[in-house]
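Section 5.1 Outputs to date
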Amino acid sequence: MPNKKETAILVRPRIYIGDNATIGPGKIELLKALQTESSITAAAKYLKIPYKKAWNLLDALNKTFSQPVFESTVGGKGGGKTVLTPIGMQLIKSYEALEIKLNECVEDELLDIKKLTKN
């Protein structure tokens, strides 16, 4: 997410790909949590969402792209691990760059909207 300025008002885009696929702030935050936590369970707990929801969101992302955005290894001595693939890391980077550009482009409009609020 872009640095919060005094406005505390931001554009968080949702990208529609075809009729069935979307990428938005929730999926990006989940990917970032997964990158940090290396576990779907831990990422879901960190974001305070059910494991099943996290899995469904990640599965939807994997089905959207030509290659997986994450890969998991099953348990064993050290336990399982989930890592982002290069596509998953690029998705975060591209989304964050888009978010920054959008917020820079609409800064005046965001300030106008902010002036209309009670804060």
